[in-house]
Amino acid sequence: MVQYAVVDAFAAEPFKGNPAAVCLLEDAAKAADERWMQSVAAEFNLSETAFLFRDSSAGATPRFQLRWFTPAAEVELCGHATLASAHFLFTSILAEHDAVVEFATKSGILAAKKVPAPESTGVSGEGKLFIELDFPMIDLYECDNAELLTILKTLNGASVVSVHKSATVGDLIVELSSAKEVADIIPDINEIKKCSGGGVVVTGPAPAGSGYDFFTRFFCPKFGIDEDPVCGSVHCVLAPYWGGKLKKQKLTAFQASPRSGILYLQLEAASRRVRIQGEAVTVMTGTLLA
């Protein structure tokens, strides 16, 4: 049997943010069985399922191998399922004094640590578990004219300010003129499936006085889900993008999906890292029998 939890990441209450299944593997054979992991991810049918396997060769800091699967494919980087994994470990598996956990992933060693509530939340953080992820910064570059024409058709006439592409899986990063357009957009999912790259990120400046710096939504039907409710990894691109535009190193992002979520971001330009902070809530636990 395999212990699992379903955790709502980047959420302060259940049924918000982005749900991820987290499976703790005790068997090395299962940790190496990609077909089994993909089948489990398809069974959960969430945007991501994370698989953890303890690395006994690590030093004093607890370390786990971590892999992420959508219902359709394995991915190389996922923020919300990493946050969910860290939350699960801190609340159910690790000792209370453990404040940092490391993950060995296809994107290198990623660290997660317990941190106080961000100042911008206006709460003391008493009794709350905020977690900070240390992720790599991702570059972006200009799209060519053919991709620009395709994306205009995909977004059903939205007011496009600029179109870029991320340097990893090639997500298209589309800035719209306002947060309202981001929140209200109804894209053509079938057209998005035809676009180059992984998915389409739409983003726009937050309304004045909202407490946020920018809004985002992420559509990724090629990975088995039309809209990812809250995506940490795309903020590895968006944080430096909006940080440059707004001349800020600390930003607060709102993902305006129907479930919604909040991400607290800090740029570390010299080391090319993005620190992503957020909360998570466990909503389900159980065991896999297969």
Compact summary:
22% of the residues lie in helices and 39% in strands. The protein is an alpha+beta fold and 290 residues long. The protein is globular, with a radius of gyration of 18 Å.
Largest sheet: 18 strands, mixed
Number of domains: 2
Cα(first) to Cα(last) distance is 7 Å
CATH topology of the largest domain: Diaminopimelate Epimerase, Chain A, domain 1
Helix content: 10-25%
Question: Can you count the helices?
Answer: 7
- Give the radius of gyration: 18 Å
Which descriptor suits the 3D outline? globular
Q: Do you know the CATH architecture of the largest domain?
A: Roll
CATH class category label of the largest domain: Alpha Beta
CATH level 4 superfamily of the largest domain: Diaminopimelate Epimerase, Chain A, domain 1
Strand content: 35-45%
Q: What is the structural class?
A: alpha+beta
- How are helices and strands ordered from N to C? EEHHEEEHEEEEHEEHHEEEHEEEE
Number of separate strands = 18
Descriptive overview:
This protein is an alpha+beta fold. The chain folds into 2 domains: 2-136 and 277-288, Diaminopimelate Epimerase, Chain A, domain 1 (Roll), CATH 3.10.310; 140-270, Diaminopimelate Epimerase, Chain A, domain 1 (Roll). 22% of the residues lie in helices and 39% in strands. It is built from 7 helices and 18 strands. It has helices spanning 28-31, 34-44, 79-93, 145-154, 179-184, 189-194, 235-246, and strands spanning 2-9, 18-25, 48-54, 63-69, 74-75, 100-105, 108-115, 130-136, 140-142, 160-166, 172-176, 200-205, 214-220, 225-228, 250-255, 261-268, 273-278, 280-288. The protein has an 18-stranded mixed beta sheet that branches. A hairpin with a 4-residue loop joins β4 and β5 (74-75). The longest helix has 15 residues, at 79-93. The chain is globular and about 50 Å long. The model has no long low-confidence stretch (mean pLDDT 93).
